[in-house]
Amino acid sequence: MKTIKGPAIFLAQFADDEPPFNSLDAMAAWVSEMGFKGVQIPSWDERLFDLKTAAESQTYCDEVKGALASHDIEITELSTHIQGQLVAVNPAYDELFDGFAAPEVRGNPAKRQKWAVEQLMLAAKASANLGLSDHATFSGALAWPYFYPWPQRPAGLVEAAFEELGKRWLPILNAFDEAGVNVGYEVHPGEDLHDGISFEMFLEQVNNHPRCNILFDPSHMILQQLDYLGFMDEYKERINIVHIKDAEFNPTAKQGVYGGYQPWIDRAGRFRSLGDGHVDFVSIFSKLAANDFSGWAVLEWECCLKHQEDGAREGAEFIKNSIIRVTDKAFDDFADVGTDAAANKRILGIS
After folding, report:
1. Which of the four, 79, 89, 115, 175, has the lowest number of CB atoms within 10 Å?
2. Element holding 183 (H helix, E strand)
3. Under a CB-based contact definition with an 8 Å cutoff, are residues 133 and 181 in contact?
4. Cα–Cα dist 348/320, whole Å
5. pTM for this structure?
């Protein structure tokens, strides 16, 4: 068993034009004060990080790590959630996702997709230069508009979508393999990889690639009404990153999983700050310890009620108190009678 690392925090939801949220150094000081030990960095936010320079310059990466170390902070992973989303976009979402891309490729889906792939390739090199073993991203989605089978899906539609998704990601996974870095896809509604079955469909298309892994976030499973603890056991060999995020699900006579087109505050399923929702974190942290998870416990704050700074401060303490320092001895060692092979045979009546 292993004692997992943490607490850490994903910076994406906190970055802002106002200090201390407009530079990586200032944010490192801020999170360190709250007790965090690691940060997951959104690679698309140039206020915090220059992805292209990180891919090309070991000096820049050493400077970034040094600046963070001065605040007793480590990098847990880089994130390309925004760019990964653009690796595969169904035309229905072209206009909605265009804002995720660099201005020069907007309005041109082919150029946007090429840009996204280039961003992932840079992320592989940057992760290696930073000495990271894991990377967080989204898969993107071609089939998601058709997740509910009405009208009936044409035969082969889903299969064609996953075949294409695999073709797009396989060269990227190979690049990460060359860099010695694992990719963790956040299993998330809106992505083609949104549950265990869809992850397995993708895994088959990338030939069970060893770098193809899972970013586990129980909040998205609460909202889908998935067995998230069972999921941890099913995919323990593939879970390489975790987001510690809470959620609640309160179905009514008027709405359930689909939410009735309501804003987050009015949905049956909604994200909450740590400890305010329905996620069984005692069991989650127990499974992380028992399953030899070797990564970080990364807070992702998304809450429709609580102020983000309160959520971060309380979240650091919550994770710190939840991490299990694993035992280095068995509780019944005191009763060990020191038997050997010959004694075992006598006990069993084996001559």
Report:
1. 115
2. strand 182-186
3. yes
4. 46
5. 0.96
